[in-house]
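If you are new to this repository, start here. Below is one unmodified record pulled from the training split, so you can see the exact layout before writing a loader.
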Amino acid sequence: MNILIISDGVPGHENQSIGLVELLQRQNGKIKYELVRFKLKMKWMRYLLAMALNQHAKIAALFIKLIYRFQTGIDFTHYDLIISTGGNTSFFNAYCGSTKLLKNIFIGSLRNLQPHLFSAILTLEDLGVKNNVVMPLSPTRVTQAKVKESAKKYLESHAGAKNDLWLMILGGNGGGCIYTQMDWINLANGMTALAQKYQIQWLITTSRRTELSNEKILQKLIPQDIIFEAVWYNQKPEKVMLPFLGLASKVFCTIDSMSMVTESISSGNHTLVMSPESYQPTDRFEQAIMRFEAAGFIQTDTLKNLSKIQFSTSSLSSSSKPSNFDQALKNLADTVMRLI
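And here is the target side for that same chain:
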């Protein structure tokens, strides 16, 4: 099977599409894919395009040509299936379905498009339609095997740790979160208390949204001797997520990014998701987090309570990956394959 991935260039969207293909490849090694990126022109026409697609109007083809600018031409005869993620890709994806060019899978909310335009719609919430596949979590390129291999390569050029390593993945304002200076102080104090109590060292990686001023607060407050390695993104960005996930026995991440949460879960680590004092997520986001916790994929708490978190002896000696995690992913792949 040859799969075409169309991408709006947003890393989080692109990685979900590729993550789904890689999941399908683990079930069927004969699957191949190609990725094509586009630029979206005249965004104001999207509502008109949705109406035309829903009504199977011929003018939809003209709208598609006006709105989408692909990096390269597409020969649809080379592909059996199209996959995309994110609202900007949904209209072209739906066009392929409406014209029967290709079977099509879309990951995300429908944005005024009718569900019959897709072979399968993958979401974290139940849409109540026949071709909707409710995912246990969003697809990601992170796997337990990948992070372990990446950690092994990392240690070839870095000294090993004498203490157990825990990972802190930090975002910033967004996803319903607004961080104050006190949140960052609580984070630093909590990390210090946990390191002293459990005799561990920290791996730290921040993001663009963490902001330089907040990184400096953490650098000032967190003792250097409890940090094994830190990447301060706004000072010197480095791609260390995979090796850090592989080196860590526990993962902590802030709740503002769904991609950070799902990548942490997919690594197979015991994952704790932390929220600031000001946290007002959308209903959709909150329901997804609640489902992850109910499934045993994550544990949630607040930055204010970080220093008080308790771990049992058994949880300290295990990554605590839920026993149903691998089966949930296999079931997702099987369901998608049946629909296409």
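Two things worth knowing about this chain: The two ends are 11 Å apart (CA to CA). The chain has a mean pLDDT of 91.
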